[in-house]
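Form 7-S
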Amino acid sequence: MLHYQSWKGCQKDSYLTILLFLVVACLTIGCSDNATQKRDLTIEAFSELKAPVFQMSKSEILADIAKMGHVGRDSLSPRGKSFLHYEQTSRLLWVGKQGLTSQADTLLSCLSNLKRIGFSASGFKVDEISSDMLRFRSLDFDGQHPVNEVVARLEYNLTRAYLTYVAGQQYGFVNPKSAINRIESAPDSTGKVKVTFVNLYDVALERPTHAFYDKAIGCIATGSVGEMLKEVEPQSPFYRKLLSQLSDSASESSRKRILVNMERCRWKEKQPMPTQGKRVVVNVPAFMLYAIGPDSTMAMKIGCGATKTKTPLLTSAIEYLQVNPEWNIPQSIVNNDVLHHAGDSSYFARHRYYIAERATGKKVPIGSVTRAMLASGKYRVSQNGGRGNSLGRIVFRFKNNFSVYLHDTSTPGFFQNSWRGVSHGCVRVQRPFDLAHFLLGDIDEWTLDKIRISMDIPPVTSQGLEYIRTHQQEENEDGRKLPRKLIGYMPVKPNVPVYITYYTIYPDEYGVVRNYPDVYGYDQQIWNHLKKYI
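Output:
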């Protein structure tokens, strides 16, 4: 075994001298603690251990580590946490009284098999670590390779590789908010801010904390690095399926697609998708919605945001639905599409728009409204509900930061197209009544018929048919038929989780895993951050 003994000299630093035996490790592949075979040094080697070339100084080792970099602005990155540990504790992790710990061998065994998850050894400096471990154990130190520099390099490289691996497997190697939310910049007219980026990924995620890193570091001292490496391995069935596909994939483009979607599986959502109960999943690249129930999955086509007006990725819960809703046009759409029609009464009549003061709700004559008034944000432009409304006949509401929702459409022809990026960000659904029925669950048929009648869908009950026979549909002053408003609002109880996601490999409603195009270019953005590990 190795043994360290402190000794005093004329220098201020306290030195440690290697006294007994050094080890040659036989590495095995895997992410668990493995037995390590050792070979004692000869007496001749032992007699040379007091030579200056073998003298180890903890203070010099820490100083050499400090020369490699500093904590920087992000103390919660693996790099920053590695430097922070040595700065704050002055404690070596991998070299102790017994020399290099067996935990170093456990980590190196795991890192030597990174190809299993599609990563390369170079991204974790495996060759450099392996070379320095061999140099340390064979006492191969000289003026070009001083012992303190070798130990400093070993300590830092092992710690950074370890923290990078466990944090990446547990939380993701790429932070999607950094990769996706810095793709597009929004125009800024104030002149005060140079660049404002568009928020495209708004899912609340768990990220590595100091407590997580401290737990991982604690495993080194307790000899449980192998257990930690196993604990952080992603366990979702879809991740395991992608992992199996990776071993069978030959083409570079296919491997890239698999690796990017494996990375998405690592992201740890604060509100993870449940495996029980109802949920609604929108997968943007597939242009599909899946209403998943306890026993079956209903799939339908959707239309999403166009390339310039992307649908944001988010997690929420559907709280209620509205039948024949008015559309309060977002100010961004007013500025881009409506502003230049200010004062054009025929345009507003054709689209069934009206203008009202935001403060009072009072309607304002179209002819009196100027471009400046519309641009001020003090006036709301709305579209009357009913046939021809841009939201269609029903909308499904949930809390989010973008004023987006799921809704019907007045122009369903685009569902015949393979490319369905047609909206300003909302999600248009192909079968809105079926989705309403799914969300509302076991409600009586007359209530369902009231929704049908309000949406101009033929009723199916005798009560509904009698209502149609005895109630003539009203018309407005232009002769346009007004919607029958038997139901305007229905709560969804309990709320149903909704997930707007982005996977370019994803199972369909039958569980068949399919590939989809990278419609917003997010795969490439994630790859740009991930490829340093590949």
